[in-house]
Amino acid sequence: MKRSEMIARIDEKQLWDVIVVGGGATGVGIALDAASRGYKTLLLEQGDFGQGTSSRSTKLVHGGVRYLQQGNFTLVLEALKERGVLRRNAPHLVFNLPFVVPNYDWWEGPFYGIGLKLYDMLAGKEGFGKSVVISRDETLEHIPTIEQDGLNGGVQYHDGQFDDARLIINLAQTASEQGAVLINYMPVAALVKKTDFVKGVVAHDIESGKEYQLEAKVVINATGPFSDSVRRMDDASASPMITHSQGVHIVLDRSFLPGDSAIMVPHTDDGRVLFAIPWHNKILVGTTDTPLQRCDVEPKPLPEEIEFLLEHTARYLTKDPTRSDVLSMFAGVRPLVTNPNAENTAAISREHVVNISKTGLVTIAGGKWTTYRKMAEDTLDQAIAVGGMDYRPCITANVQIHGFHKHSENFGDLAVYGSDAINIQNLAKNQPEWNQRLHPDLEYIKAEVIWSVRNEMARTVTDFLSRRSRALLLNARASVEMAPIVAELMMKELGRNKKWKKEQIESYKALAANYVL
């Protein structure tokens, strides 16, 4: 997947079947769906693939225990089915992870035990493992650092874990292999109308400065938190569909949770579910739910959100984390479908909605990572009708995602690349200096930078350190120390100059400052 080749495939005289605006999980999922059905598909992303919400999740592929509590069985059932589809199609990125719900009151064991048995029942044959009530000793065996004072036992259940940004890249590669054209760093500046119907876009290539006017039978707005901005390009008076809520996570050293299980706390002070999860040999703790008045491309954690996470983590672990223990912190914006009857954003379901304007702009809003494939299918079914195209059925439930490998763990630190790991190993073998680590505290090697530029459309230092690798999220300070090495390697691969290298390093340092507590 090379950007130069993608650009070369754009012909302003061509009529696309589908133009997708937005390169997050939903947009890339739609591009894959459309291309695999045989439609001529173009996706345009203003920044990098998965730059926003889609790379800042809690890293779970799950049915949603929170929705089970709310009695939203339809959403849970759909998500559990999609969880199973994802594990089948991307086993190199989606794994079974055991969770423990610690019990401190006598009623919690039977209460949560029954609820999670229902979770198992809804999953059916797509289940990842059976839930069981476990004793105090068994709970300590799974989570040695759990707070022992008053501990009665726990309930263990199973859910899915994944690497969100890596999956986005593999989905984009799969869409490309199916015939789609996907271009990052090409924002849409305007919509093109013919006879009062949206029939294309005006896009601007940030790298070359060239402007393109591109026509399509249907345009799909899949920009997540920025959906209303694109809708206002169509109709300046369009009423908002989206309300924004911020979710914040912190990353800690593995010593805080050294066992084999994650922790799920079903009810915090603000009514949210809290997770502490092993991820890439670190511990990810989240999340918060803070209503936002505005949406930024780079949202920043608020001091009170960090304190909330530290306080709640300390309640459940014997080793209490302090501010100095936070290796990285990050925020993501949830695009929630507006519900005027809800008192706050935490009460709003993330179930997706497809909106079709009077001029034929198709907007997909809401939803969650786990159900991206179903959201794409529902959106494209509507878009086919709007564009007047012949209907072809969705096949993505059975499309293996790029990198598919059932035993990727055999590749060690390169496991997240799946079948591509062999190619990266060969790069390191043929050029021994590329086998060197970028930083002693993280497992990434130089060959991964080369691979990401040549095959994954990484264009900036941030692309690699934040999304092709996860260095920024795992250890922000270490990632800053890696930046000059990454910039040097990318400069040579991309044919840039020293000025570009210096600007990239400074830009990355400024960005990473928002991830350091």
A few lines on this structure:
The chain is of the alpha+beta class.
Strand content: 15-25%
- What structural category do the secondary elements indicate? alpha+beta
Measured as a percent range, the helix fraction is 25-40%
- As a whole number of angstroms, the C-alpha radius of gyration is 23 Å
Low-confidence stretches: 340-349
- What is the name of the CATH architecture of the largest domain? 3-Layer(bba) Sandwich
Shape estimate: globular
Biggest β-sheet description? 10 strands, mixed
Structural domain tally: 3
What is the count of helical runs? 16
What is the CATH topology assignment of the largest domain?
FAD/NAD(P)-binding domain
Number of strands: 20
Mean pLDDT: 94
Highest CATH level, the class of the largest domain: Alpha Beta
The CATH superfamily title of the largest domain: FAD/NAD(P)-binding domain
List the main descriptive attributes of the protein structure presented here.
eight-stranded mixed β-sheet, 3 domains, Helicase, Ruva Protein, domain 3, FAD/NAD(P)-binding domain, 16 helices, alpha+beta, D-Amino Acid Oxidase, Chain A, domain 2, 20 strands, single chain, ten-stranded mixed β-sheet, 517 residues
